[in-house]
Amino acid sequence: MLRLATTLGRVTATSSATFATAARVLAEDPMAAGPKDIPEKLTLTLATPDKALYENEEVYCTLIPSMVGMTGVLPGHVALVTELKPGVVVVQKESDGPKEQYFVPTGFAVVNDDSTLNINVPEAVPVADIDIEAARAAQTEYTNAFSAASTDEERARAQIGAELYGTMVLAASQDVFA
Amino acid sequence: MFTRAARAIIPSAAAAVPQNARGMATLQEMKRRIESVSNMAKITSSMKMVSAAKLRRAEDAMKPAMAYGKASAALPELVGEPEEKPETRLVVAISSDKGLCGAANSVIAREAIAIMEEDKAAGVQTVIANVGDKARATLTAKGVEVEHGFSEFGKSAFSFAQAAYIADILLNEVEFDIATIVHNEFVNVITYNTVRKSVLGPEKMAEQTSAALGHYNMRGDRHLMENYASFHLANAIFSGAREAAAVEFAQRMSAMDSASTNAKDMIERLELQYNRTRQAVITTELCEIIGGMSAL
Predict the structure, then answer these.
(1) Residue A47's closest CA among B239, B188, B76, B153?
(2) Which pLDDT belongs to residue B71?
(3) For residue B3, what pLDDT is reported?
(4) Is B219–A71 a contact, with Cβ atoms under 8 angstroms apart?
(5) Which residue of B has its CA nearest to A82?
(6) How many helices (DSSP H) and strands (DSSP E) are in chain A?
(7) Residues B256, B192: contact at Cβ < 8 Å?
(8) What is the pLDDT of residue A52?
């Protein structure tokens, strides 16, 4: 997971050109398309390379760790594209059902007009399966590496690692979303 | 007379061997040939078995990868084709490391060359990258310069880390407006399609002002769409490679199946010939003995 995170971090760092669409989007009224029929359920695809945890499954609600914080997605949510931060994806199939929690290192989530939610993540681990001691050790290792880093790249790598494992420790140690 | 007729059918290699008048060497030659063909049949049929087992595993690995690739491609589909003609194109030709799988690898090389020729006519600069040894060998033999080649991915299924590694190198080292991924699409064990999948380059993806995406709420920094394009390149390579692997094993299975059938036919023909020759030799000997007897 660590190697994946740094690879993606590097991919992220290669970007350079301006982003034209965002300004245009902000200037437009999201409801301009008119009111739509809102389905009762959210159609969720939560896919990792080796396992599709959900594939076009109807769920009640999903929480995603977006770049601006945890975002709850219910049916009829405004169309949305977001990058994910390390964090926990919470899926609730029924409004009174159990909350399934998966820790994800990074990825992307797209909500479409028809209440479909596509989440692509390189890896997803059930929060209950996290070895908190190992995560803590890795966090310490990266925190030390950050203070010892001499180049920008080393610093960025250490920061990504520390953030990832820090969030992992948090997610595993407190049952935030239960 | 029979002996001579039988001898004529045997290929020249066997005919060149010195033979005595009774044709014993011919029989020995044929026996050896039957043995070597049946040994070959043993190899091809066991390769078929191995491919069948590997195909099952590759199909299992392909299913989640397909769902993953489909989910990842949904947004780029909304973004659509580039508004203006691309100036540079990166072709990622995905083949396998090993051969003996019918035309599955050569069609990839042919398709890559076709794209290059189309681009040449349209004035688009093309950079060829390739995954898997086989297409590279074909492309290089045809004088195409493969700028980035990736191979030897090991025996387990193509992993996302490998795809991310490839995408990372390509994004860092090649400037492209659009990437075209060429791979074989799995239809069933017998059929496959060679497809081209377009992935916009990070800068183009960000510049694209598509109407379908107009009302989407963009959450992230200003590099959001660029990052998506980078991530999607890795995802597309990943799902394409997993699908291509299933095609490779399916094609190897059917290639080995027809090779085994051919070998079986050949053994049957050779055995018939062998028996006829053997009978002819016996007949000749009897004639000689009877002829000698009556001469006394």
Answers:
(1) B239
(2) 94
(3) 44
(4) yes
(5) B219
(6) 4, 10
(7) no
(8) 94
Closest Cα in chain A, distance from residue B273 (Å):
54
- Residue with token string 């390579």: B237
Distance CA A26, CA A36 (A): 20
Name the band, by pLDDT with cuts 50, 70 and 90, for residue A2. very low
Q: Which CATH class is domain A39-128?
A: mainly beta
Just give the CATH number of B47-255: 3.40.1380.10
For residue B215, list chain A residues with Cβ-Cβ distance below 8 A.
25, 28-30, 32-33, 78-79
Q: Do A49 and B202 touch (CB under 8 A)?
A: no
Rounded to whole angstroms, the Cα distance separating B142 from B145 reads 9
Q: Which residues of chain A lie closer than 8 angstroms to B171, CB-CB?
A: 11, 14
Q: Are A118 and B72 within 8 A, CB to CB? A: yes
pLDDT for res A176: 62
CB atoms B235 and A120 under 8 Å? yes
Q: What is the pLDDT of residue B24?
A: 52
pLDDT digits (tens, 9 = 90+) for A121-147: 999 999 999 999 999 999 999 999 999
Q: How far apart are CA B88 and CA B176, in angstroms?
A: 5
Nearest chain A Cα distance for residue B65, angstroms: 5
Query: Whole-angstrom Cα distance, residue A78 to residue B37?
Result: 67
Mean residue pLDDT of chain A comes to 82
Q: Are B247 and B162 in contact (CB under 8 A)?
A: no
Q: For the ranges A10-19, A66-75, A98-107, A166-175, which has the lowest average pLDDT? A: A10-19
Q: Which residues of chain B have pLDDT under 50?
A: 1-18, 20, 23
Q: Is residue A60 over pLDDT 80?
A: yes
Give the nearest chain A residue to B207 (CA atoms). A20
Residue A15 pLDDT more than 80? no
The domain spans of chain A are 39-128, 130-173
Measured CA to CA, the distance from residue A97 to residue B95 in angstroms comes to 46
Residue B224 and residue A79: Cβ atoms within 8 Å?
Answer: no
Among A24, A45, A81, the residue with its CB nearest the CB of B75 is: A81
Substitution target in B227, B235, B243 with the highest count of A β-carbons within 10 Å is B227
